[in-house]
Amino acid sequence: MLTVKDVSRLLDLTEHTIRFYTDKGLVPSLKRDEHNKRLFDEESISWLTGIKYLKQCGMSVEDIKAYVDLCLEGHDTIEERYAIIEKQRAIAHEQLKEARDRVDFMEEKARHYHEILTKKMTDDTNPGKWHKEVQST
């Protein structure tokens, strides 16, 4: 069994976030010790991992709670859960595309700056200089 601190390190979530999620009832398999401290087993870690990813897709805590409740209802809710996951998958793909676009932008900027540095080219990327160049032409 793991403590909040252990799970925080394992999943890269703050202790506050973990407590918040458990207080909202998002981790149905949560255990507590004789001092009422939260204890997490593999199942609890699985719930938190899923919650983390759903939250990163932009899902609200309320919607995640509804999803958890559907999971607990069992097989009869498969279609609803599938629709939720498909929607979140589409969002994750869009986020991935946006991240790739950012990486491509940064790669191009780094390449350009490297060329300026190695070929001693003038810095044509600084917007502060654009106005001065227009005035001097």
From TrEMBL:
CDD domains: HTH_YyaN. GO terms for molecular function: DNA binding; DNA-binding transcription factor activity. Pfam families: MerR_1. InterPro entries: DNA-bd_dom_put_sf (IPR009061), MerR-type_HTH_dom (IPR000551), MerR_fam (IPR047057). Residues 1-70 form the HTH merR-type domain. Keywords: Coiled coil, DNA-binding, Repressor, Transcription, Transcription regulation. It comes from the Bacteria. Residues 82-116 form a coiled coil. PANTHER family: MERR-FAMILY TRANSCRIPTIONAL REGULATOR, REDOX-CYCLING DRUG-SENSING TRANSCRIPTIONAL ACTIVATOR SOXR. This is MerR family transcriptional regulator. It comes from Rossellomorea marisflavi.
